[in-house]
Amino acid sequence: MYLRFKVLFVLSLFAYCGYAQDNLPIQIDDTKIQPLRKMLDDGLQEGLELEVYKNAIWKKLVSQNKMAVGIVDLSDPENVRFARINGSHMMYAASLPKIAILLAAMDAIEKGELKETAEVTKDMRLMISKSNNAASTRMIDRVGYEKLEAVMTDPKYEFYDEDMGGGLWVGKRYGGGGKTNREPLKNLSHAASVTQVCRYYYLLANGKLVNESRSKQMLSIMEDPELHHKFVSTLDKIAPNARLFRKSGSWRTYHSDSILVWGENSNRRYILVALIDDVRGEQIIRELVRPIEKVLKRDLPLQTN
């Protein structure tokens, strides 16, 4: 009887662990959450370069440092794979760095530096889901540039690291007027690199931004984007049932998108980030999804997760 109970207990434990991996944040031992740069995968890198470089326009943009792409394969959370092209090349990223404002605000709320009012909660959702500039500016004014810089350069995250080409930065309100705090390397007001944005989503998926509770809150704010363009326009067609956590940006020739795709099973779970400086950027970002899924060996039929 005791043996039977023990076997049932072990089986139930495995079942629970398996279930936990099907949810966000991902539940794995902290020792298995390694720096993303240590998870570079030669096979994934080769496949990414093959798919990107076979398109003459994309290859030219990459060579001109006008296109950067990063992917993180989360199909096996304990064996994550990472690949990037122009990964540490920081570019102007328009509204994408609003994810930095979200993290700084959550950090401030957790530390009692910002009160979590209904207005603040509403503005965080508007800032991310609809990319509302007025809401974003209100959030910048609430947390301040000093807080934004402190969180982005915090050794806990290092989302902006001068020794690694910079990264995530917000140093200007999304609207006219006010002081600025541009980043020191390129004097950009709203900046990102694909490696740093991939790291942001990777830590978020594992519940490591601020803490697990705040990570869950951030995930809920970023889920179900209300702007259905770029990556989302394609994923709406090929993965209509997948959960999407996303922030994009566009200004003049600068187009960017970042997304955590979480399918109903592990066959379609990944992070994808693209930064492009080209008038065709929005269309290029749409067209990237299928080749990326091919690289990940997850090129599934339409209407399937």
In short:
With 305 residues, the protein is an alpha+beta fold.
How would you characterize the overall build of this protein?
The structure is a single chain. This protein has helices at 2-20, 42-53, 56-63, 98-110, 118-129, 133-143, 145-152, 194-205, 212-222, 231-238, 281-295; strands at residues 67-73, 81-85, 91-92, 160-161, 166-167, 169-170, 190-192, 243-251, 254-262, 269-277. Strands 2-1-10-9-8 form a five-stranded antiparallel sheet, sandwiched between helices. A three-stranded antiparallel sheet has the order 3-7-6. Helix 2 (42-53) packs across helix 11, helix 4 (98-110) crosses helix 6 and helix 5 crosses helix 6 (133-143). Helix content is 42%, strand content 16%. The model is unreliable at 1-20 and 299-305 (pLDDT under 50). The chain contains eleven helices and ten strands. It starts with a helix and ends in a 10-residue tail after the last helix.
